[in-house]
Amino acid sequence: MDVLILSQDDVERLLTMEACIDVMTAALKATSRGDAVLPLRSMVWKPDKKGLLGLMPAYLDQPRSLGLKVVSVFPGNHGSEYDSHQGAVMLFDTEHGSPLAILDASSITAIRTAAVSGAATRAMAREDAGDLAILGAGVQATTHLEAMKVVRPLRRVRVWSRNAETARRFASTLAARHGLAIEVMPSAQAAVEGADLVCTTTAAREPILEGAWLAPGAHINAVGACFPASRELDTAAVKRARLIVDRRESALNEAGDFLIPKKEGAIRDDHIAAELGEVLLGWAPGRRTPEEVTLFKSLGIAVEDLAAAHYLIEQAKARGVGTSVPLGGRRLAPA
User: Fold this and answer.
1) Measured distance CA(262)–CA(271) in Å, rounded
2) What is the dihedral sign for C-alpha 93, 96, 102, 108?
3) What is the C-alpha separation between 59 and 293, in angstroms, rounded?
4) Measured between alpha carbons, how far is 278 from 97 in angstroms, rounded to an integer?
5) What pTM value is reported for the model?
6) Residue 288 phi, psi (nearest 5)
7) CA distance linking residue 227 with residue 224, whole number of Å
8) What is the DSSP letter of 233?
9) How does residue 62 score in pLDDT terms, banded at 50, 70 and 90?
10) For residues 300 and 31, is the Cβ–Cβ distance under 8 A?
């Protein structure tokens, strides 16, 4: 059987942020409707705990997709030539189980994560929001700036990173790319105070965002922390916010931003107001008042990768992009 291979460059060329936000919106709606099979991801840690291999399988009914993402997560790669997330997304035919495609996971993860935040921001942030603070200056900071620019007219952009030189390089490069003035801030607090859009995109294990800094009506997309023992937001920030998650089961088992305040007794399971898919379906409000602080906690779920991969295959076939290789799958005749 021929299997389509899409490289990092192929994915970046075919998967625009605007299109991906729409694809993610549809996938999250399908998931909240119950039209997906989504087990919790499994992980194999290196003995030194400095890296892991994660396996994220799923089935999505619309668009009908069966597959998985296998991805290595090495947080120590931040600031190096290597992405912290590397791997492949693989799709299979839903009728016979034949492998259909293998796609670069680094680029899909970078784009689809920010696109989900874009969908959340479009549904939850105030209509007049446009003062953006980005904490972190890596891959996800880059794609989140693009996503925020798609869903809200940005009037001010501030960035902070523990590495000041990385922040300066981010500001210089992205300002020229997007035609925006980007201010490098000396502290996370200085970046966040007064902002009505906040994106946390760091590899932090301890909070870098405090609830006391948040302006009334702010919306936060928290995407950096993805393990039970790590978080980017302090307890006060989570407690004061209306919390929306990509998937309840995942948040209840994997989201340190939620689990640590819960362990402290500050919140309970019912602090999760809804899944993002439920908000997008109109089953739950994303925001109830202009002054309410809203928080979207993103872990990243496999249906997002499958939906992006399905879209990419359609685009690649239509444009003649990618490489096909025979990978087997036919039943071998007896000798």
Assistant:
1) 9
2) positive
3) 34
4) 31
5) 0.94
6) -105, -25
7) 10
8) B
9) confident
10) no
* Phi then psi dihedrals of residue 296, to 5 deg: -105, 115
Handedness of CA 150, 151, 154, 159 (dihedral sign): negative
Neighbours of 129 (CB within 10 A): 21
Question: CA-CA distance, 27 to 179, in Å (whole number)?
Answer: 31
Q: What pLDDT does residue 199 have? A: 98
Report d(CA 43, CA 71) in Å as an integer: 10
pLDDT of residue 226: 87
Backbone angles phi, psi at 258, to 5 degrees: -95, -45
CA 298/CA 171 separation, integer angstroms: 24
What's the N-to-C CA distance of the chain in angstroms? 20
pLDDT-derived band at 203 (thresholds 50, 70, 90) equals confident
The domain defined by 2-109+302-326 folds into ornithine cyclodeaminase, domain 1 (3.30.1780)
Residue position matching structure tokens 């009728």: 95
Average pLDDT (35-43) is 94
pLDDT tens, position by position, 135-163: 999 999 999 999 999 999 999 999 999 99
Give the SS3 label for residue 154: coil
Q: Which CATH superfamily is domain 128-297 in?
A: NAD(P)-binding Rossmann-like Domain (3.40.50.720)
Classify 51 as helix, strand or coil: coil
Round to whole Å and give the CA distance between 24 and 63: 11
Domain ranges of the chain: 2-109+302-326, 128-297
- Please report, for residues 16, 102, 141, the alpha-carbon distance to residue 174 in angstroms, rounded to integers and kept in the order given: 17, 30, 10
What's the token pair of residue 333? 């005749």
pLDDT at 333 over 70: no
- Give the DSSP H/E element, type plus range, for residue 245: strand 242-245
Q: Pick the more confident residue, 210 or 82.
A: 210
